Amino acid sequence: MLSSEAWGFDLILEALEEVLRSEDEALSRALEEVKEPPLRRVSYTEVFHPSGIPPQPEIEFIELKELKTNPYLFIGVDLISCLLSAEGPDSLKEGAEDLISRIKRKEEVRPEDSQKSHIALALPEKGHLEDVIGRWTDYVWKPRAYDGTEAPSFEGWIEDLREIADALKNEGINVIFYGGDSVDKMRELGYDVVKVKLRKKLPKLGYPRDPSVAWSGSPVVMNMTLEHRRGEEDAATQFFSKIGLKPAFRPRWWYDGRRILRARAEGGNFIIVKKDKIALFTGIGIRGSNRAAIELMKEYFSLKRVNLDIYGVPLPGYIRDWRTGAVHLDVVMMNAGPCVFLSPGRMGFYSFIKFGNEMDLVDAGSVFNELGVEVDEIPTEGSEITLVNALNIGRGKLVVDAYNEEASKYLEREWGLDVIRVSIPQIEAGGGGVRCASREYYLD
User: Fold this and answer.
1) In the chain, where are the structural domains located?
2) Beta bridge partners of 62
3) Within 10 Å of residue 135's Cβ, how many Cβ atoms?
């Protein structure tokens, strides 16, 4: 496999420029192949005892000999069609020009502790949540919330989201909900709403952190790992488009010279820390970022002329009990501004993977020292899922799960943080916290 240096960091631009160079007939053929690619899958599940385990990721790729389209053209057409819904040669070329312009536009990258002014929440459909009942393992869900109620509960989700929304509005933050038909319920309760079209059942739509990232005025749509979450990206794309934000990129496919690899990229696995320097941390684990996603994000930042280091943080996986693992980085790391809080027993704390021209193992302590930030461990009593999965709204304020009271008191006492407590038993039961259930965005 060739390194990213060998490819000159030009895969994204080469793919989009290939669209501009291509004849209409070639574009039409590529569009058809994008809709039904000759995809190969290698399943992890076969190596495990198969009875009753949660869903495992797959390695997905396309062999070049099975691809009829030029690999660059395939990647370019796929990117444009999934972000801009292009359906013909003319719209593909218009989309290529549009994406090239937005990808190359220099923008400020905001770290996790930037002040928030606009936050989106998402409400799953009632019927989609009800389908989880009796199939909790299939959907990586607890059958009971920590308050003893059955999970998932549509009414419970509404109450949890109202807690978060009202807390944010009290801080002067603009809150908007998106979702399918059920989101009208939030409109009836007096909240701003954007309705999107859901093309499949998406019971975890209520975790809008994962299908996108928004570090600037140009959101990046992610590429979900598990089948039951694929489709959330399209809902996020529709939402951003309807509020006037055009996504600039989506890490979909990476070409390594031998085959085309599908990227695994989820928003909960990305945290930006910025003080003396700027760094992007990403989780490496059962549903963590793979090499394809990291190489694509590295190139994206290069095109944006953003100089940052990317570090992979090893996370524990799971076989039978998903609660023993850490699906995303944001359940073990929190950038609170004055300090980065860690759950060191649930991450590879002492060795990170630095992704430069080549991969290198680096000492975690030296990384934080170079960034100029302190690290700390907060009390572990409470929920491992939500302990550090807090929403940093800036100005030293965190919105946290009220269930973790010992941790909240520690943050107030030792660090002087303003801790805003909300009760979210149903959100926690599905494997997420306040950060998972929210998506900040920037209108500049």
Assistant:
1) 4-103, 118-440
2) 260
3) 11
CB 430 within 8 A of CB 124: no
10 Å CB burial of residue 399 (0-12, 13-18, 19+) is buried
What's the predicted TM-score (pTM) here? 0.95
Residue with tokens 């004849």: 23
224 and 232 Cβ atoms separated by less than 8 Å: yes
Place of tokens 């080549």: 358
pLDDT, tens digit (0-9, with 9 covering 90-100), for 229-238: 999 999 999 9
pLDDT tier, 2 (very low <50, low <70, confident <90, very high otherwise): very low
Interatomic CA distance for residues 149 and 156, integer angstroms: 9
User: Helix, strand, coil % (nearest 5) of the chain?
Assistant: 35, 20, 45
Helix axis angle for 71-84 and 89-103, nearest 10°, is: 90
* Contact call for residues 399 and 434 (beta carbons, < 8 A): yes
CATH of domain 118-440: 3.75.10.10
How many C-beta neighbours within 10 Å does residue 327 have? Answer: 30
Residue ranges with strand state E in 68-173: 118-123
> What are the two backbone dihedrals, phi and then psi, of residue 32, each rounded to the nearest 5 degrees?
-65, -40
Looking at the DSSP bridge assignments, the partners of residue 374 are 339
Alpha-carbon distances, residue 234 vs 81, 140, 179 (angstroms): 11, 21, 11
Look up residue 344 and give its two tokens: 């060191």
Distance CA 196, CA 205 (A): 11
Cis peptide preceding 152, ω within 30 of 0: yes
The 3-state DSSP class for residue 283 equals: strand
237, 248 in Cβ contact below 8 A? Answer: no
Contact 397, 115 (CB under 8 A): no
How do residues 165-220 score in pLDDT, each as one tens digit? 999 999 999 999 999 999 999 999 999 999 999 989 999 999 999 999 999 999 99
Strand order in the sheet with 174-179: 192-195, 174-179, 118-123, 439-440
